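Render this sequence as a predicted structure.
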Amino acid sequence: MTIENTLLTNIKLIFSKKGYNLAFNYHIQTNRKDQLKGALLFAIYFTISLLIISFIAGDVMNINFLLIFFSFCTVPLSIVMNFDGKFTDKYEDDGYNAEVVGLNYYLVPLFVMAGIVAGIYFQNVVDGLAMILPLVFPLILMLHRMETFSDKSRYEYSEMKMPIGPGYVPIIYGTISIIIGICITSSTVRMIGHYPLGVVIISICIALGIQSLFLFPDKINKVLPFDLRTKNGLIFMIILGVILYVMVNI
């Protein structure tokens, strides 16, 4: 195989379902080569996600997105290195649960650190909180909704375990909620000190409620004429997220 073909194959792997599965299940791979490949893919996805979130947050907060991105990277590597031994064995039988725990373990410390850096940069505690709340809220809420964001959501349970679709994919629902939160919740938190406290609290609650639309897909699923656990259902939620993003940025 030529160098060009090898490079093309690896690029295709990044955007494939196989690559996604390798990245978020690398810790349970028995083949050492697959473990290394999966860890590298996870690092690529992780970096791309942070860059996207940093760019959007930087645009909303009107600061250089690289400042936010590099602040994410100030958390000691030991936090990342210790992940496998503490959580993966417990959740290795449920890939989606492992994904939720992994996202919390990796991202919550990173986002909190980024908020602290932003607060110091602006010399304003409110700005730091405006960054931390919309980023951390969805992840922690997903951690308390593990039953929903689990591998069970991919199956229709009756007499037999029948696959129904991708289910409630944690990284997709969490990312949409975070992006919407950066646009809405951050702005409402910055109302602190400029509007009556009651108005601020109500506004923040409404903003968090909008973010939560993507964190309670099982509840929304009960009132829709189609199933959100299917591929079409997932596409519907992604489109809904895009529409909300466009609406709040008009």
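Summary. The beta strands are 155-157, 161-163. The chain has a mean pLDDT of 75.
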